[in-house]
Specification:
By secondary structure, the protein is an alpha+beta fold. Helix content is 46%, strand content 16%. It contains seven helices and six strands, in the order ββαββααβααααβ. It has a six-stranded antiparallel β-sheet. Helix 2 (63-79) runs antiparallel to helix 3 and helix 2 (63-79) packs across helix 5.
């Protein structure tokens, strides 16, 4: 079994008592919290109760801001890939799925990933929110502004690792709707 990060969307945030009424599946990524997930969770980021696990380890964020940032970065990454058909297909699938699953919030579940270390999962999610996600957003914004060419070149080299997640209406953990 692979450990994954899971990304969902909903029009409300989970509470201690209940999950949002309609939870839409966005994507899952094996063995990592990829750059794309970090960027989509990069605006108005907060920690809320998990929809899957007991600890308070779900990351909620503004959908529109995160989706726009990812689309802008994909555009800039694509400019340096010389018409790579596989990348273009990845971008088309990603952007189409994001449009179809649009909601008010992204909900990022990283419990499986932060549990891989001996660290406390709550502390691991806090590090994502306070360090990793803001750093990724800052790098992406700088690259979009033309001020981060070395980072952008490294992203282009391994774009699959950062952007080629499994986008689907049904993920390993799906919710009745």
């Amino acid at each position: 079994m692979a450990n994954r990060s899971y990304l969902y969307s909903a029009d409300s945030m989970p509470t201690e008592d209940e999950n949002p009424k309609a939870i839409r599946c966005i994507s899952e990524h094996n063995w990592d919290v990829p750059l794309a997930h970090k960027l989509m969770a990069g605006y108005e980021t907060t920690i809320v109760p998990s929809m899957i696990w007991s600890p308070r380890i779900c990351i909620a964020a503004d959908y529109a801001g995160g989706a726009d940032l990812l689309r802008d970065l994909l555009r800039v990454v694509g400019h340096g890939l010389g018409g790579d058909a596989e990348f273009a297909e990845c971008v088309a699938k990603t952007t189409s799925h994001l449009e179809k699953q649009r909601a008010r919030y992204f909900l990022l579940e990283t419990g499986e990933m932060v549990s891989l270390t001996n660290d406390d999962p709550v502390a691991g999610v806090q590090r994502l929110v306070s360090d990793d996600i803001p750093a990724a957003v800052a790098q992406a914004k700088a690259a979009i502004a033309g001020e981060n060419d070395d980072w952008l070149a490294s992203i282009r080299t391994d774009w699959q690792e950062h952007f080629a997640s499994f986008y689907s209406d049904t993920l390993y953990f799906s919710f009745p709707g």
